[in-house]
Amino acid sequence: MKLGFIGTGYVGLVSGVGFGELGNDVVCVDIDEKKIELINKGVPPIFENGLEEMLKRLIASKKLVATTDTEMAVANSEILFICTGTPSRADGSIDLRYIQSAAENVGKALKNSDEFKTVVVKSTVVPGTTRDFVLPILEKHSGKKAGVDFGVAMNPEFLKEGVAIEDFQNPDRVVLGTEDPKSLKMLRELYSFVNCDILETDTATAEMIKYASNSFLAVKISFINEIANMCEKMGADVNLVAQGMGMDDRISPKFLRPGIGYGGSCFPKDVKALRAAAEAAGVTAKMLSASLEVNKAQPLRAVELLKKHMDPSGKTIAFLGMAFKPDTDDMRESRAIPLAKELMDLGAKIRGYDPIAKETAKMSMPEGTEFFENIDDLLNGADAAILVTEWNEFRELTPQFFLDHGVKYLVDGRRIYDKTEFNKSGVVTEVLGEA
Q1: Based on the domain organization, do 272 and 338 belong to the same domain?
Q2: Do residues 178 and 219 both lie within one domain?
Q3: In terms of DSSP bridges, do strands 150-154 and 173-178 run parallel, antiparallel, or are they unpaired?
Q4: Overall domain count for the chain
Q5: Final residue before a domain boundary, out of 262, 292, 322
């Protein structure tokens, strides 16, 4: 099939490349000319495992092309996916300006088309957005009737950064939210490659499934973090607690790893957006608010653990990792940011190293952060270290490695080190959730 993707962030580019690998003809659209130039050279503007190799193959075979011309994309596509960002406003509600702009441009281009095309919202939007916001814009600017002259649908994405290609190729479910039978038929054909359950719904329900899924996982993380804080004070082993909980198949062990909190482009933003939408509808979202409160406070637990052994004022603290999770360069809502700000407010000097998020960290971390290109230089001269992101290369570090670099204090924010072993070796180590 011929497909167009409006927006070349994680969702748009990974989806476009994924469908291109399946033999579809793909046009990617973005207003950022530099991103388009990179993509057409086979260089993805984001880091994602396996993405660059696949993109290069598609560019070479001319199965994928990138452009700033929405009209060209619409003219050469049967299905158009809107994949633009949906950032948070100050009050946490969803900002639809990019969705609106994309819908207007697609609508104008549809005006010149005689073919039935389906416009699919793939961006994460609150329930009712596709039907009550995007559809009227498309009708207004095209002068055509939805369901008759063109189709409208909602197809949420469930891609995890770091393993997004694998998630696309082997999804655990596909949700097709549609408002007309033609669009549903087209999407069924497009997703005929999957070997998983396909749930067919209306657009508003599809939108809510995405928000409910992300919010539930965020709540689950906040719950185990709160349990870990209790275990620390009550002398229980949170690792065994999580293991015991996870043995219940109603709960499962996934997302029961305590640490300094969740970040990224989805969980914080989506929980805030759903809470704001709920409140606008007259519903008080108490559990969502609690999850956000726990997550906001969790990085500060690392500060409290450090303060047990030193006054941060005037000290140099080394951050091992800065990205919100390993295998990505995404710094959005990284727990390294509020952690650094808190320590800086206490007079500490912050330095950081991340294997991948080198440039994105420079744009996101607080002013005054010093950046290093390797672990050796990072630790030399540091008074203490905090493990922020559990990159594999950090898992291999031994107590002696820290001692050789003069670092005698360590806070493990992701629970990857053996506290007993490190303390016996002379590295005073604190692990979140352990007494």
Answers
A1: no
A2: no
A3: antiparallel
A4: 3
A5: 292
| Structural domain boundaries enclosing 414 | 298-431
Query: Considering only CA atoms, which of 292, 310, 128 is closest in space to residue 208?
Result: 128
Residue with tokens 């939805």: 146
Catalytic position from the list 28, 83, 231, 266 = 266
Instruction: Report yes or no: 422 and 399 within 8 Å, Cβ to Cβ.
Output: yes
Residue 266 designated active-site: yes
What's the N-to-C CA distance of the chain in angstroms?
57
> Per the domain annotation, does 22 fall within a domain?
yes
In angstroms, rounded to a whole number, what is the distance separating the alpha carbons of residues 153 and 174?
A: 13
Residues 273, 124: Cα–Cα separation, whole Å = 10
CB 287 within 8 A of CB 228: no
Q: Residue 433, CB half-sphere, CA atoms under 13 Å: how many? A: 28
Q: DSSP H helical segments within 281-426, as ranges?
A: 286-307, 336-345, 358-364, 375-379, 392-395, 399-404, 419-424
Q: How many other CB atoms sit within 10 Å of the CB of residue 21?
A: 18
Provide the residue count of the chain: 435
Q: What is the DSSP string of 341-362?
A: HHHHHTT-EEEEE-SS-HHHHH
In this structure, the answer to whether residues 33 and 111 fall within a common structural domain is yes
278 and 320 housed in the same domain? no
Q: What is the pLDDT along the chain (435 residues), one digit of tens a residue?
A: 999 999 999 999 999 999 999 999 999 999 999 999 999 999 999 999 999 999 999 999 999 999 999 999 999 999 999 999 999 999 999 999 999 999 999 999 999 899 999 999 999 999 999 999 999 999 999 999 999 999 999 999 999 999 999 999 999 999 999 999 999 999 999 999 999 999 999 999 999 999 999 999 999 999 999 999 999 999 999 999 999 999 999 999 999 999 999 999 889 999 999 999 999 999 999 999 999 999 999 999 999 999 999 999 999 999 999 999 999 999 999 999 999 999 999 999 999 999 999 999 999 999 999 999 999 999 999 999 999 999 999 999 999 999 999 999 999 999 999 999 999 999 999 998 887
Q: How many helices (H) and strands (E) does the chain have?
A: 19, 14
Vertex 247: Cα angle to 243 and 252 (nearest 5): 90
State whether 104 and 251 are in the same domain: no
Do 399 and 331 lie in a common domain? yes
Residue recorded with tokens 């999804």: 171
Q: Which pair of tokens denotes residue 232? A: 């620390």
